[in-house]
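Run 3-oxoacyl-[acyl-carrier-protein] reductase through structure prediction, thanks.
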Amino acid sequence: MASHDTAKILAGKVALVTGAGRGLGRAFAEKLAALGADVAIHGMRENGPAEYGEGTTLTAVAAEIGRQFGVRSQRVLGDLTKGEDIARVTAETEAALGPIDILVHNAGGDIAAAGGKPDPNDAVHIKEADVRAVLERNLLSTILTCQAVAKGMMERRRGRIVTLGSVAAFKGRTNGAIYAVSKAGVTHYTRCLADQLRPYDIAVNCIAPGDTRTGRFLGTRAVDPDRMVETGTLDRIATVDEVARVVEFFAGPMGAFVSGQVLRIDGGGQCWPG
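Sure, done. The structure for 3-oxoacyl-[acyl-carrier-protein] reductase is below.
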């Protein structure tokens, strides 16, 4: 959990964090709230936080974050593969909290059309419905959500956008191939958006986590206990806070002149150009 002792460097700012009911998204929202930002907590389902035992409801998560960090918070529900839902999510956020200064688009995942992991999940045999679902959930949602939020930021000539890539984007892989392709697309869309928004003083960056100890990660695979240590080696699974600290950098004053970048957060697991 973030500490109350952190300087309130984002006081007066409004942040929208998508996919924030649990896991990394919740950690990002807590980090921004600890820094003083008012936060909109987006989720696709009201009961999503309970899926891997990380909470109860999206409403409860939003209320708890607001109470814990002494900021205003708002729960917003919507399917971010649909333009009309995105428009409503942004409108509800701004009606409750004010214009969006920070977008952290975390929603996504290697999730099949019917839920769960695609099966098969390779480059050749994955079902068409699952190809579309993974591309829409990750790449299309990123493009459409960034478009919606960027328009207001351009009018105000200020803002920060952080997208969520993955180390999967930078290496050919048989398993999870379409997810990797979608995250490679997210990475490059981020660069294109950053180029367009430079004249508007809006910094746009992508973070690319490796394995991170979220409820979903730990609940959907066998994990080597040796990689669950937190000190003594970088060859381990990241804590959610180690990833959230990078969002603090990109969203805060230190990141003001950094844009168009993708930063891998994997303890040096990929030591080659991205």
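The helical segments are 23-34, 58-69, 83-97, 128-156, 177-197, 215-219, 240-251.
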